[in-house]
Amino acid sequence: MLPTVSWLAEEYAALGVPFRRRGDLLDEHLRAWAVLWRDTPASFAGEHYSFRDVYFAPKAFRPGGPALWLGGAMTRAMWAGSAGRSCAGWTACCRSPAAASLCRMAQTPDDMLTAVSASLAERTGRPLAEWVALVRVSGIDPLDQNAVRKWLRSEHCIPQNSQWAIADAAARDAGWVRPTVAEYVDGQYSGAKAALRPVYDALAARLQPATAPGQATHKISLRSVQDLDDEVLHLLRIAYEQNA
Q1: What radius of gyration, in Å, describes the C-alpha atoms of the chain?
Q2: Cα of 195 vs its chain's centroid, Å
Q3: Angle at 119 between CA 116 and CA 124, to 5 degrees
Q4: What is the C-alpha to C-alpha distance for residues 57 and 61, in angstroms, rounded to an integer?
Q5: Residue of 109, 181, 226 lying closest to 189 (CA atoms)
Q6: Taking the model in full, what pTM does it have?
Q7: What is the mean pLDDT of the chain?
Q8: What are the residue boundaries of the structural domains of the chain, listed by start?
Q9: CA distance 44 to 233
C-alpha cells in the first residue's frame, strides 16, 4: 500500500489546505490508520482528524495493517521524517543523478525492461525464458502484445510491468522489431487518429526531450492546434518544472 501526498501547490490552494503542512497531514493519516487497523472500537484524537468508538471491519489480513511504502521525490528528507519511519519501504521518483543512484531506478525504458525481466523469477515464479516459451505454446499470437498481456493478467495474475516485459520478449522472439520513436509516433497517429497529428507536432515543438522516465499526473484533452493556448503552455511549464 502506497501513501502519498500531491506535489501540486495549486491543488492544496483550491481546497484551502496549507501546502507546506501536507507532510503533517500524512503523518496523522498514518497514525489514524494504525489505530483503525489495531483497535476495536477505535478512537483517535489528532490536530487534523479525530474519531471515537469507531468500528472498522474487516481488519487487515496482516497483523498491524498492510505494509506501507512511501513514495515521492524528496528522498532522504522525507524518508528521515516520521512518515518514513512508519513505512516499510520507499519508492522514489528520480529527479537527479544523485536520487537515481540512491534509489537505483532505471533511467531509460530499456533499463526498466531489463530490471523487470531480471527479477521475474523472484516475483512470478518463472524466469523470462520460461514465460516466453509458455506464450509460444499458449495459442495466442505472440505478435499481438495486447492479447498476450490480457492473457498473462487473466490466467496468471501477472502484474502490469511484468506483463509488458514478457509480451515484449515474446514478440521479439517471434520476429518483431521494436519501432523507433518516430515509427512509434507514426503508428499512434494513423487511421482514425491521423487528424490529431498536428496537435502532437505542435506540442512536440514546444517540449524539451525527457532525459529520464517520468510520471503521468494530469491529463488534458486537446482536439485541435487552437486548443494549445497560453493556459495549456503554462500548465506544461509547471509540470516540467515540478518534475525536474
Answers
A1: 22
A2: 29
A3: 100
A4: 11
A5: 181
A6: 0.49
A7: 79
A8: 9-103, 109-173, 192-242
A9: 45
Packing angle of the helix pair 160-173, 145-156 (nearest 10 deg):
130
Cα distances from 194 to residues 41, 199, 204, 213, in angstroms, run 59, 10, 16, 26
Owner of C-alpha cell 468508538? 53
Cα(149)–Cα(219) distance, rounded to whole angstroms? 24
CA–CA dist 104, 88 (Å, integer): 17
Q: What is the pLDDT of residues 166-210, one digit of tens each?
A: 999 999 999 999 888 889 889 989 998 898 899 889 888 877 666
C-alpha cell at 89: 519501504
pLDDT per residue over 75-101, tens digit each? 444 544 555 556 666 565 555 444 444
> Could you give the CA distance from residue 205 to residue 186 in angstroms, rounded to a whole number?
16
> Residue 75 in contact with residue 103, Cβ under 8 Å?
yes
In which residue are the cell numbers 532505471 written?
A: 106
Q: Largest Cα–Cα distance of the chain, in whole Å?
A: 63
Residue 185 CB coordination number (10 Å): 15
